[in-house]
Each structure stands twice: as structure tokens, then as C-alpha cells.
Amino acid sequence: MSEITLEQITELLCQQLIQFTNNDEVTISSETNLITHLAIDSIKLLNLVMEIEDHFDISVPLNTLVDVLTVQDLANLIYKIKSSQ
Amino acid sequence: MNLLEKLDAAAAARKAQLPEGLSAFGIPIDEAFSATEARIGKRRVLMLGTNNYLGLSFSSECRDAAHEAIDQEGTGTTGSRMANGNYYGHRALEQELAEFYHCRECIVFTTGYQANLGTISGLVGSGDVVLIDGDAHASIYDGCILSGADVIRFRHNDTNDLEKRLRRLGDRSKNTLIIIEGIYSMLGDQAPLAEIVKLKNAYHSTLLLDEAHSLGVLGETGQGLVEKTGMIDEVDFITGTFSKSLCGIGGFCVSRHAQLNQLRYISHPYIFTASPSPATIASTRAALKLLRDGQLLRKQLWKNAQQLYTSLQATGYAVGPQPSPIVAVLLDSPKQALALWNGLMEHDIYVNLVLPPAAPEGKSLIRCSVNAAHTSEQIDRVCQVFTELHTVIMQ
């Protein structure tokens, strides 16, 4: 299986977030803050994590999310988990 | 933003969500008259939002036991179980709970919240994994955080989703604690215990079942979901609370594993707190006997539950997935839920208002709970008021 790059994960994440926020007009980049820009509260973030887990076939422990603020932070975390598999 | 400004911002956000709804939370109960009636302000209200499932809060046996304990042992122990707070009653209650569940070990905690905190943080630690149901209670989340283990959430009551997450863990599934609840506190639905037991065995994991809302409610003798499903020998750890069917305050963990006893030496929520007061222990011991022999109470409880659930469903309300003493009415917006809550209060009926993010799936809930002391006439009146309000609220 070919390895996925950090850039690919970031791109996929941006696409997924557009669907999740249900707002086509919002522009999402790696610097987008999940809480202040996308208004993702704690419960929405937990549900988003479940979608991401299924998409990438990984498990993301909730305790690893404490430092996640931006899309880039989340992409880095997914990349790290995916790489360690 | 400094610390106090952060609190101001949180308060402003809460007020902005539902400015007129703030009075619904932490409402002052001015007098409690019985297991079903209280005074709120000038209103004598029917209490349809308690966890008093067997209606034992005013039972003469429990009150007498509490009075006697105060007279004989004083008002408080003033110390931890590990120091001067380890009275005969604490040990007797542990033995009685162990016998009730046919288990080897039992530890009594000072609150139900601490029972989950102390058990979870004692069982798992850094490098271990906890798999929790998506609708798990805050005490479970907090216990997981305290433990330092990796915490992974699976979709509520979805065994396929649980298996997917167990599979991904590989060898780590052996160091995984799965945590579920007998009856979930918001929607009143039950865990698919038999299927989850199969998975925990297949993946060599450990299972903790929280019977907080199912103790006294399910099973012939009221053990909970373990008894209803005949799974007592398959569940590794059972936690529960004294503050619902047992009408006191406190919590416990029972287990068939002798290793549970080790938690007394490592679990901070057990060690670093004062032990339950003698009155609490005495009333809980009396309530446990009533609970165990409470087949008639359970029969009445389920009759009331069925009556309310069926009526609300027939009226057209969206209710929880299965009949239960917790009857949740699901509403699309906080505003709609508040309107229904206010309408019920105007008819002297108290229920719980639950708004996002506390309610599952971003819904707002009117959470009703019936008990064995409610009469058919009281439930009839509640159903009638819900029917009257339906056309007004659901417009």
C-alpha cells in the first residue's frame, strides 16, 4: 500500500471539514482554527474524530487532541498515527 | 484574556444560547414532601425528573436506619477509609454488595462519580487503552482523563463500530478496558451487553459495566443489566451509585477478580477523601434490602414507564429508542425544549431540561423519569398535559 503524505492528509481533511461544517462558502486551509473559525465545539470535534478514524482506518485517542487547534495540527496528528501503523 | 475574563465569556455564551432558559437549571427545591411531590416557589409540583426509581427516598426503614446511625456514630467520619474513616458499616455494606452480586470483592466510594473516577484510574494507566461508548457519562470521561490511558470512543451502542476499534488496536486490545452503561442516562436505552461480552472475549479485553441507572430497575433482584441478561460471570467490573434507586449518596465497584482490592492502595478518589457518613451507609444498607426484595416496586415502576412512553409516542413526540423509566422527549431546538419545559412547569410538573452539548446528537431533551411511587392517576395527568402542549409546542 502506498504511503500517504502529510500534504495529502491535509487536503483530504480540508475536504472532509467542508462537508462536516455543511457550509460550501467557508474557505478552509491548513491554518484554519477548528474552534474559532469553524465553530466546532467539543462534541462536534469528537464526532469529527470518528469520521476521520473511519476515513483513515486509524484510532485517534481523545487525549491526543488536547494540543489540536488548527487543521494543520490535526493533519500532523493523523500523519503521526498513520505513520506508526 | 485572563482567567476571570474567560469565565465571563463562557457565561455570556451560555446566556446568548437561551437567555430566558437559565432559570431551568439548578432550580431551587424549597420543600420535598414525598418521593413524588415537592414545592418549588409557590407551586406544589409533581416530580417527574428525579432518579428515585424505586421511590424509596422517604421509606421508614431507610430513615430509621439513618437516624439510629447518627445517634450512635455521629454525623461524619471526618476521615478517609485509609485512616480513621473505616467504620463497621462501610465494611458491612461492601460485604452485602459483594454477596448481592455474587462477587468476591467490593469497594465503596464516597460518591458515584468517584466510583467511576477511582475504578477507572485505578485499573488503567499510561500505555493502556480505554474504549468508551459515545454517550458515556461525564464521570467515565473524567476517570479516563485521570488515568492517563489512551481514550478511544465508539459510536453509541454500535457493536460493529466497537469491533472495528478493537481490531485496529491489534495486540493492545489485551490491555484495553471497554466501558459501557446498563441504562444510558439521557435516552434511557440499554447496552447490547451479550454482543459486547462476545467481543471483549474475542479480543481478550476487560469489561466495566456502569449500572448507575439500571441498579434496582432491571433483573429479578434488581442487580441491573447483568441480571437481566444473565451475564454476571462475564463482566469484569461493575460500578454503581447509591444516589439513584438507593436514595443516598455514594458509589461502589464490585468484581469477581480479587485484584480489585489493590485499588484501595492506588486509587486517589478512594484514598484522598472522607468516607461516607454513618447515616448514608445505614440508609443505603436498608435500601439495598428493599431493592433486592423489591419485585413489586419494579413491577409498578415498569408499568408507569410503559404508560408514559406509550402515551408520548402515540401523541407524536419523538421519544428514546426503547421503553424505560427514563423517558426522553427529543426536540429539534433549545427554544422548543424550553417552551415545553415551561409549559409543563405551568401545569406543576417538574422534568429535566437538557440542552446541547449535554444531550446526544446535538438534540435538546425533555428528560422525564418515572418512579415506583407515582400513581397511575399522576401518570395519566402527565400524559394529558403533554397531549395538550403538543399542538402548541410542535407548531
From TrEMBL, chain A:
Pfam families: PP-binding (PF00550). PROSITE patterns: CARRIER. Residues 3-82 form the Carrier domain. Coiled coil: none annotated. It comes from the Bacteria. SUPFAM superfamilies: ACP-like (SSF47336). InterPro entries: ACP-like_sf (IPR036736), PP-bd_ACP (IPR009081). This is Acyl carrier protein.
From TrEMBL, chain B:
Gene3D superfamilies: Aspartate Aminotransferase, domain 1, Type I PLP-dependent aspartate aminotransferase-like (Major domain). InterPro entries: Aminotransferase_I/II_large, AON_synthase_class-II, PyrdxlP-dep_Trfase, PyrdxlP-dep_Trfase_major, PyrdxlP-dep_Trfase_small. The keyword Glycoprotein does not apply. Signal peptide: none annotated. Pfam families: Aminotran_1_2. Its cofactor is pyridoxal 5'-phosphate. It comes from the Bacteria. The keyword Transferase applies. One of its GO terms (molecular function) is pyridoxal phosphate binding. This is 8-amino-7-oxononanoate synthase. It comes from Nitrosomonas stercoris.
